[in-house]
Amino acid sequence: MKKIIKTPHAPAPIGPYNQAVLTGNTLYTSGQIAIDPNTNELVTNDLEKETHLVMKNLKAVLEAAEMTFENVIKTSIFISDMNSFQQINKVYATYFDEETAPARETVEVANLPKFVNVEISAIAIK
To answer: Which N-terminal residues, if any, form the signal peptide (predicted)?
Structure first.
């Protein structure tokens, strides 16, 4: 059985998908980008601010499923320019304890939704 996870504290879906799906004890989040859920505005002019907003949106989705970053077992990071990796990784690292950080991959892609610089999704377990 699957449960759809929705929260007004993260951007609403812009297509036929949900913010996250919980099945059993496993949560699958959709990719989060830097849309401010309060204003619906995109933040892409400062990579660190953009990454923090992506992580805050991901945190809101986790919280809606009664989870935290401690529950995350895997993340996928999609970036538009691998030269941005160090800046993104610096911000990303502040949300996880290095000793218990999740598995992840980071992939450079040609384009992302709304031409953002970074998108992150996660898998978490209770």
So the answer is: none
Q: What are the φ/ψ torsions at residue 64 (nearest 5 degrees)?
A: -65, -25
Helix (H, G, I), strand (E, B) or coil at 63: helix
pTM listed for this prediction: 0.96
For the chain, domain boundaries: 2-125
Find the length of the chain.
126
Q: Does 3.40.50.300 match the CATH number of domain 2-125?
A: no
List C-alpha distances in Å: 94 to 4, 32, 52: 28, 17, 9
User: Using one digit for the tens of pLDDT, what is the confidence trace for 53-89?
Assistant: 999 999 999 999 999 999 999 999 999 999 999 999 9
In whole angstroms, what is the distance from residue 112 CA to residue 118 CA? 8
Residues 108 and 43 sit within 8 Å (Cβ to Cβ): no
